[in-house]
């Protein structure tokens, strides 16, 4: 991570997450992306702008939502969320070889902040297990070596699940 960002380990440890987006060559992915972009441009002529944007939040609406949840929600960790975060932190401490600079008490605090932020985003007063897992996925995605995520070589080439609550 410090190679891609040219930041030292101690400085990197001050950030909750750092996402390095590498645009690596992948023929299958490039085909998917180019097909999507071309089809989007082809559809612009067929669909009116109002139909295309129906149901989407404007930037102003999103800002207001974030401002509201920031001011009115102080999510509290549930026992389940505490257990998930604690287990992950302990796993990282046991396997801290390459990421020793990041596996500090700051990492634990980062996980808590990220889980609380996810709970706020989801309009909840309690941090659930899903919020804790989402925080861990964010942290894992920001690391060059992942302790629990498999087959994630490049965050740009990953996708969102259709139903995260079931997973």
UniProtKB/TrEMBL annotation:
The keyword ATP-binding applies. GO terms for biological process: double-strand break repair via homologous recombination. Residues 61-143 form the MCM AAA-lid domain. SUPFAM superfamilies: P-loop containing nucleoside triphosphate hydrolases. It holds the Pfam family MCM. It comes from the Eukaryota. Residues 4-41 form the MCM C-terminal AAA(+) ATPase domain. Its EC number is 3.6.4.12. This is DNA helicase. It comes from Taxus chinensis. The lineage of its organism: Eukaryota, Viridiplantae, Streptophyta, Embryophyta, Tracheophyta.
